[in-house]
Design goal:
Layout: H1 9-20, H2 25-44, H3 52-62, H4 68-79, H5 91-100, H6 103-118, H7 123-127, E1 134-137, E2 140-143
Antiparallel strand pairs: 1-2
Keywords: DNA recombination
Organism: Molorchus minor
Protein name: Tyr recombinase domain-containing protein
Amino acid sequence: CTMNNCESEEIVEAANIAISNLLPTKSRSLYDIAYNRFKKWCAEKNVQVYSENVLLAYFSENAKNYKSSTLWAQYSMVKTGDGYQAKILTKSEIDRFLSSANDKEFLMIKVGLILGIAGACRTDELVNLTVDDIEDVGSSLIVKNSKH
């Protein structure tokens, strides 16, 4: 039984309603506009799958016309859009990703995933992680300075 497969339809529906009500109507429309602008750009560029590279290309292109503060706000709006919401991965999904995703394209994400899980890192700890925070003990990597 995985986390998502154990949830009743009632729970899923209640969660979807809660998510849709997190933003006031006026803000929701601004988020939808930003996300739809991103989707339109993706369609023009023939982008099928959203990735960090896609977001970097999109915001690099937009950096010519907007201030950095505007870009950060737009980034927040785009990443909460319908197609780019965070998902909790199951152990089998993580294993499948680590074993089958192309290293040339996803190596940094794989390393971050492994360090985050193995080091039991919180998001901010993982984001602020430096090479000095990692210790090689025999054949094991240990993340120092983790709050866990």
